Amino acid sequence: MAIGTKDLAVEQLDQFDNARLADELKKAKEELFNLRFQSATGQLDSSGRLKAVKRDIARIYTVLRERELGLRAEVAAPAAEEKAEKKAKKSSKKAEETATDEATEEAK
Fold it and tell me: Quick one: where's region Disordered (predicted)?
């Protein structure tokens, strides 16, 4: 995904989990650093790119802050959802086994 483009619209950022947003933020900050360096050395081709990257960083920070305040719904990581489902299944199986073991002991 290119930083500083319409690919980082708020609707697109809403679909990312917090880890992915942090990764995108890191990439955007690195790009901003490189653009500032190019600007200082006179090698910057497009000064508008600085503005676009700064806006992307602001968008990411806004989404993260809104999630922190509960104004925007968080998106769970797909792997985390799968792990949670597996844990729930395991705990329900253990509860069933415990119940059947207790019932068997009571029957004796």
Answer: 76-108
- CA 22 to chain CA centroid, Å, is 6
Among residues 46, 38, 31, 103, which one has the least CA distance to residue 23? 31
Report the C-alpha gap between 41 and 57 in whole angstroms.
Answer: 23
Q: What is the tens place of the pLDDT at every residue in 8-51?
A: 888 889 999 999 999 999 999 999 999 999 999 999 999 999 99
What are the Cα distances from residue 39, in Å, to 25, 35, 43, 49, 69?
A: 21, 6, 6, 11, 36
Show the tokens assigned to 94.
């253990």
Domains (range + CATH), the chain = 10-69 (1.10.287.310)
Q: Whole-model pTM?
A: 0.65
Q: Which of 71, 70, 69, 74 is nearest to 21 (CA)?
A: 74
Spell out the residues 6+ positions from residue 31 whose beta carbon is closer than 8 angstroms to its own: 3, 4, 53
Q: Dig out the tokens for 99 from the structure.
A: 């119940």
